[in-house]
Amino acid sequence: MPHVLVERLVKSYRIAERDPGLWGAMRGIVHRRHRTVEALSGVTFSLERGELLGLIGPNGAGKSTTIKILAGILRPDGGRVEVDGRHPFDDRERHVSRIGVVFGQRTQLWWDLPVGEGFDLLRDIYRVDPARYRRTRDELVAMLQLERLLDQPVRQLSLGQRMRAEIAAALLHEPELLFLDEPTIGLDAPSKLAVRDFVKRANRERGATVLLTTHDMHDIEALAERVIIIGHGRVLADSPVDALRTQVLAQRRLVVDFDGTPPETFDLPGTDVVERDGRTVVFGFDPATSSAPALIARLVAEHAVADIHLEGLSIEEVISRFYAMHGAGEA
Ligand SMILES: Nc1ncnc2c1ncn2[C@@H]1O[C@H](COP(=O)(O)OP(=O)(O)OP(=O)(O)O)[C@@H](O)[C@H]1O
């Protein structure tokens, strides 16, 4: 039985519409018009215990809605959602004590309370055994470097400091499942690295199952082995990150710096010149049919070569090509 099971999940929102201007607002009081937005139209996936899955997709694709349903915040309109056999919305009370949630754009701490007092409140809410709480809190405080922030009200924290405090808050009750909705949004490079490092450790060392949404492909590159691409409320791809690369483009690139002006044409079967810039030529080839060592040997034997290296597509390029292939721009 998977840790998380999502089958044909459906969710729509009803939005009140009104005509512009004062007259429109007044008409709206009498004749309310509504529009339905289909946020999820049949999302299916599952997660095994201890997996770290990246959920990505353009704005409005349905990522946050999926997390809110899995966290028991929203009730789905249809389909099946089970976490460890629990129904997140119906078993909310039992469910929240087993999960940790971080929404990058919202705080679960108390704005005016010092961080440490917020942690103590969460201990009471989750009814964590005091000795166990002290041990976990001290460990999290040390790992996330929160010592000097414990006495500061949350509103005084920088975004990076707050995010570290949020992550600690989500882990105080030692959840086995972690939902992270854009945990690195707006963070500077060192804070992003600290958050990534910590998420990786929570997954590897504590064995936490992690579902992460992000728009930062470096998060995916650094953390996830598997990604789900969601678009228009549907799963467009569910695949190991590496397999996605070959699925999108069965091409690798060989970047060659020539010692002098490169020739106009090359006699290299199975390769294309995909880019030229001064002394640098980038060749594209399919690794299934052309061998990189043979190609390199031939280039070096026939030309004066100063430097040579192989290049794959960045995950960022892979995803944008994927959206282009599936017509899945902003939903
Ligand atoms: N509370 C709400 N009321 C009405 N519509 C909503 C609400 N929340 C989300 N939606 C709509 O549902 C769709 C999916 O939104 P969702 O927030 O799940 O997307 P997302 O993939 O998380 O997007 P983003 O990357 O921009 O955060 C969008 O069309 C959005 O406008």
The CATH class of the largest domain is Alpha Beta
Bound molecules: adenosine-5'-triphosphate
Strand content: 25-35%
Can you write the helix and strand succession as a string? EHEEHEHEHHHEHEHEEHEEEHEH
Q: How many DSSP E strands? A: 13
Give the CATH topology of the largest domain.
Rossmann fold
Total discrete domains: 2
**Average pLDDT figure:** 88
Keywords: ATP-binding, Cell membrane, Membrane, Nucleotide-binding, Transport
Protein name: ABC transporter
Pfam family, one: ABC_tran
GO molecular function: ATP binding; ATP hydrolysis activity
What's the SSE blueprint?
Elements (H helix, E strand, L loop, with lengths): L3 E14 L3 H10 L2 E15 L4 E5 L6 H8 L7 E6 L8 H5 L2 E5 L11 H12 L3 H14 L15 H13 L5 E5 L7 H16 L4 E5 L3 H7 L2 E6 L2 E7 H8 L3 E7 L12 E7 L2 E6 L6 H11 L2 E7 L3 H12 L5
Parallel strand pairs: 3-7, 3-8, 5-6, 6-7
Antiparallel strand pairs: 1-2, 1-4, 8-9, 10-12, 10-13, 11-12
The chain binds adenosine-5'-triphosphate.
